[in-house]
Amino acid sequence: MYRGALSLISNYGGDSSDEEIPNGRVSVKRCASEEDVSNKRLPVPDIICRDVKYDVPIDDPSIHNGRIRSFPHERGNWATYVYIPYEPNESCINDLVEHLISGLSQFSFHAMDNFHISLTRTVILKHHWIELFIKSVREKLSSFRRFVIVFDSLKVYCNEERTRTFLAIRIGSGYDTLTKLIESLDNCLAEFHLPPFYTEPSFHMSVAWCVGDYEREVNEVLPNLNTIFQQLFLNQVQSNWYNHVTYIGCKCGNKKFTFNLT
Q1: CA 153, CA 222: separation in Å to the nearest integer?
Q2: Residue 168 bridge partners (DSSP)
Q3: Which regions span the lipid bilayer (predicted)?
Q4: DSSP class of residue 60?
Q5: I need a labelling partner for 97 at 20 to 30 A (CA). Which of 32, 44, 160, 210 fits?
Q6: Which of 178, 180, 175, 155 is CA-nearest to residue 165?
Q7: The dihedral of CA 73, 78, 84, 87: what is its sign?
Q8: Which residues are catalytic?
Q9: Among 94, 105, 9, 90, which Cα is nearest to 49's?
Q10: Please, where in the chain does CATH 3.90.1140.10 lie?
Q11: Tens place of pLDDT for every residue, the chain, 262 residues?
Q12: Residue 101: other Cβ atoms inside 10 A
């Protein structure tokens, strides 16, 4: 069967012969009329059509602790967000998260994979936009100086789709600089007709999450969780709760970019 298909391909590629000019090395294709072309063009063999397959990524929530994508995966679309990384002492945060999750045993909470403060929503960039977007962000952030963020207390959040609940640490200081960063980044997003950040942002760093909308239920036990937080806060070195922001990060699909502050 495959030999027959290859024979058809051979016929398909050789239906117009070259005519050589006598005593010369220049060859030219003979001009075929539209009628000749339409009559002699052979269809692609069915066996080749059947053998062509395209891999389409399948979103399986079971391998992501039940998480569901906010955006369906499409080739050429890159999920992108800009953020401030947390760097002082991850072991301190990991210890805090462990205690907080134990206080939420009635829910299936998980620790966040990485700790950061979001400065944009997660938006979709076309592949050919990435270079221009990164250039725009770099230009907008070039005038910002390093600053310090201080963490405050716990708060509960839900994503826009109400499919996940988050436990987060609110930001207690650094709001002025954060607000100016948001304004600059919103201008970058507008250049690509992408949605801006939230109108009344509540700056925070998510530390744990669970599948489903449990905002009301977690808020009921939030006072107890804040007690745990305050106890650990007092027992830790205070500098662990200060985040000295020296650069801004951007994650675009599997690519990471950094923008150093002056």
Answers
A1: 10
A2: 155, 206
A3: none
A4: -
A5: 160
A6: 155
A7: positive
A8: 116, 204
A9: 9
A10: 76-260
A11: 544 544 444 444 444 444 443 444 434 444 444 445 445 555 555 544 444 444 444 554 455 455 555 556 578 899 999 999 997 677 888 899 999 999 999 999 999 999 999 999 999 999 999 999 999 999 999 999 999 999 999 999 999 999 999 999 999 999 999 999 999 999 999 999 999 999 999 999 999 999 999 999 999 999 999 999 999 888 888 888 889 999 999 999 999 999 999 9
A12: 18
Indicate the residue type of 111: A
Residue in this structure with the two tokens 């075929």, named with its chain if needed: 32
Report d(CA 130, CA 136) in Å as an integer: 10
What is the model's pTM?
0.73
Q: Could you tell me the two tokens for 11?
A: 């016929």
DSSP state of 193: T
The token duo for 155 is 């708060």
How far, in Å, CA of 235 to CA of 152, rounded?
A: 15
What's the token pair of residue 224? 């107890």
Residues, the chain: 262
Rounded CA separation 84/215 (Å): 25
- Could you say which architecture CATH assigns to the domain 76-260? Alpha-Beta Complex (3.90)
Return the amino acid letter for 80. Answer: T
